[in-house]
Amino acid sequence: MDWFLFAIFLAAALAAGTTGAVFEPGAWYRALAKPRWTPPDWAFPLAWSILYVAMAVAAARVAPLEGSAYAMAFWALQIALNTLWTPIFFGLHRMRFALGVMAGLWLAVAATMIAMWPLDRIAALLFVPYLAWVTAAGALNLAVLRLNPQEARALADN
């Protein structure tokens, strides 16, 4: 693996992750009704740190390979959507719009994994935990939206 290439992809992933520091959950999120299965707050930065490293390793393994254009295009799309979700949900408090972004993110992560599979199966498998986490995050986004219809309705009126 090219370590310089890994560092570039890791920097891109960590840049996406900085939105979590800029748009923290805060009092608004703490006041929302959430399902009992909501992960504890400490799980989010831990999970994302591991996932960002896995994404960077996968990208560094696939990027130099012949025929990697689609895999890398989907990688770019998923990191862009990953970056977008946090400011929409925690910054703008637009839960419904964030759910749409999450659906796009899920599709982009799945497409990245599928596009990587014929090129490097280890890289593709590194995306499996990410897809599982995005699935859980999407379910959580949907559950919070359903448990707080007044909040979603109030924002839709603005």
Kindly describe this structure:
The protein is mostly helical. The protein has one domain: TspO/MBR protein (Ferritin, Up-down Bundle). Helix content is 80%, strand content 0%. The chain has eight helices and no strands. It has helices at 3-22, 26-31, 43-62, 69-91, 95-116, 121-126, 128-147, 149-157. α5 runs antiparallel to α7. The longest helix has 23 residues, at 69-91. The mean pLDDT is 93.
Q: Report the C-alpha radius of gyration, rounded.
A: 16 Å
Question: From the 3D coordinates, which CATH architecture would you assign?
Answer: Up-down Bundle
Give helix and strand order, one letter per element, not per position.
Answer: HHHHHHHH
Number of helices: 8
Output the CATH homologous superfamily.
TspO/MBR protein
Low-confidence stretches: none
Helix share bin? over 70%
Strand residues, percent: under 5%
Compute the separation of the termini in Å.
49 Å
The largest sheet is: none
Bulk shape: elongated
The overall pLDDT, averaged over residues, is 93
Given helix and strand content, the structural type is: mainly alpha
Number of strands: 0
What is the CATH third-level topology name? Ferritin
State the CATH class: Mainly Alpha
